[in-house]
Model the fold of this input.
Amino acid sequence: MDSNVCQVYEDEIQSLKEEIKLLAEKYEDSQQESTFFSDEEILMSIKSLQRELRGESEGHESASDLKAQLESLETHLSFLMKLTGIQFTSHLKKTLEKTRNKTVRKHRLSGNCCSLSFQLEFQLLEMQNKANVSAAITDLSIILEPRGNSDLDKFVSRSLSSYAEWYEHRRCTFLHFKEKYPDIVTLPEGLLGDYILLRSPKTSGFELMVVWKIHIDEEGRTTPVLDLLTKVSKQVLEQKMATIENAPARFRSMLLLVGIEEAIENLVSVFGSER
Done:
């Protein structure tokens, strides 16, 4: 085949790689389990994508090799679309700046999630040195259709980033205390849940639940809302009624005084030493 056919394949492969990379990032951020694909299959697909995006294969490939690679990328793209529910319908890009070690491109993606249409605009900064290549997304903007859905627009434009930051902060905090106090802290819903349980290793029938919600108000502002719930047997309640009844109020006071992590740390320490 002539070079024009090869160039068509190469351009289409590059476009698919970019779409696959975006879908893979969305999947990793969501951290949702799939009931149709095993963790091993997902990991193998992600590693395969990473190898392809690093450009491990070098040199000019034949048209048949390019076609096989294109078919493989299309399979990966179909897999990620099923996994995330997101389908891209068009992609436009424009190079804003390009030097020997730095490239800045502006991307615009159009697509839909179920029946909701959207446009995603961002700038991609790529830095290259002898050791590796790094990339960062800046100036992210999401436009939803129909435009009349102002409440949803506010949520996306003002609170999505903040919500994601609090969500990740909660996940990391829960993981920290689970690893530090494995005999006391349990995660009934895993790291994606919104609460942890404290079970006393010394007193049976005594549990505390730290609930951590992320509230979004009408203006799109996100606020962490924490509270303490108790679960005790009748026998333990009779022995420690005053302490248990005052525990939620004292926990809320600690949150205001020392912050989330320190308040939970103090609670776990006291709970672990309770007799």
Confidence is low (pLDDT under 50) at residues 31-37. The longest strand covers residues 86-98.
